[in-house]
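A brief tutorial aside. Many learners find it easier to grasp structure tokens once they have seen a single protein encoded end to end. The record that follows does exactly this for Glycine reductase. Read the sequence first, then the structure, and try to relate runs of similar tokens to stretches of the chain.
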Amino acid sequence: MSAPRDDEFGFAPDYDSPIPYMQRTRDYYSAIGYTTPYRWAHYTAAPFQKLTKPLAESRVTIITTAAPYDPAKGDQGPGAAYNGSAKFYQVYDGDTSQQHDLRISHIGYDRKHTTATDNGTWFPLPQLLKASATGRIGGVAPRFFGAPTNRSHRVTLDTDAPEILARCLADKVDVAVLVPNCPVCHQTTALVARHLEANGIATVIMGCAKDIIEQAAVPRFLFSDFPLGNSAGKPQDIASQAQTLELALKLLETASGPQTTMQSPLRWNEDASWKLDYNNVAQLSPEELARRRAEFDKQKEIARGNRAA
């Protein structure tokens, strides 16, 4: 008896599932010559802080891994190549009453399937301000916070997360919405969210790397099955961005305990073959892998110089 055809039952292709970013990343760096596998944060339980007051009375902030645009640091525009010069290494904050030009050229978002033309897809301040204006939340905190994307678990846990907590407490923040972009960004925000929850601040992460977030065991996670760089919705699609934030707010209200994941019903497009591309060594030639190794080493040196400066 022959096996049933997928289309007979309406099955999706096997690749149309959340991208395994941890395995892709291990395989990719091994293929370009880094043979020590990275240790992704792994927990089996998470802290959980229930809302202490209704969202309509809560003060909400954003924690982002995007960087403020600095024209002295090279190309950071839409479609820019990875730019190690634009990385930041200390927590920063910004006034939420002002507009901000935050960019993601310094991190590994999906440059093939998105071009970083709309910062509403990684910095949902406009949507959060609308939620405040309509009374959906009590208000936007006076500052948002930038979390450095550190591969070092110790730096994130011992330095950056406590610094973000201190600034949140100073601003009397009730709720934090965390928005990562690259694979390591997702780990960073997971560790920060865990620290905030353990110290009384409810959190929700809006992200695209399901495996990384869930292995780190976070309190609440809104998963959008989009290319990296679009955790807050689709580019040039305000309705998508509004719906994504609303789903995150609903998750804050409805999660009954930690490690609660909600999947957005939105799809990037009908053709899911984009999921086959990101850092997939099966689709990269030896020449391309060598080129990427050389470029990685170059950017690593640039970043090291900036860190020391």
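Self-check: The helical segments are 6-9, 21-31, 125-133, 153-170, 183-198, 210-215, 238-254, 286-308. If you spotted this yourself, you are ready for the next section.
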